[in-house]
Design a protein that fits this description.
Layout: H1 3-18, H2 23-31, H3 36-61, H4 76-81
Helix pairs in contact: 1-3
Bound molecules: zinc ion (ZN).
Zinc ion (ZN) binds at residues 67, 69-70, 72, 87-88, 90-91.
Length: 92
C-alpha cells in the first residue's frame, strides 16, 4: 500500500466512524450491540487509525522510515509491504 492510499484510507475510516451517527446507524448499533465480532472490528479499525496517525506524525518529524527503538533504517521492502511499520524487522 502506498502512502497516498493510506492517507485516503484514513480519511475513509474516520468518515465512517464520524458520520454514521444518524438514526439508521443508532438502530443498527442497537441491533448489533451484542455482536462481539463487530466490536472487535471497530477496535481493529481504531488501532489502525492510531497507527496511521503515528505514521503521519513521524513523516512530519522526518523520522519516518527509521526505527525509533534502535535507530536503524527500516528496509524499503518492509515499508512497502507495511507502510505503518515503526520497527525494523529485528525489533518487530
Ligand atoms: Zn530496530
Amino acid at each position: 500500500m502506498r502512502l497516498a492510499d493510506l492517507l485516503e484510507r484514513t480519511e475513509m475510516i474516520e468518515d465512517d466512524l464520524r458520520h454514521p451517527l444518524d438514526a439508521d446507524w443508532s438502530e443498527q448499533a442497537v441491533d448489533l450491540a451484542d455482536d462481539e465480532a463487530l466490536e472487535g472490528v471497530d477496535e481493529v479499525l481504531r488501532a489502525e487509525i492510531q497507527h496511521i496517525r503515528l505514521t503521519l506524525l513521524r513523516i512530519e518529524k522526518g523520522t519516518y522510515g527509521t526505527d525509533a527503538k534502535c535507530g536503524k533504517e527500516i528496509r524499503r521492502e518492509r515499508l512497502e509491504a507495511r507502510p505503518i511499520a515503526a520497527r525494523c524487522i529485528e525489533c518487530a
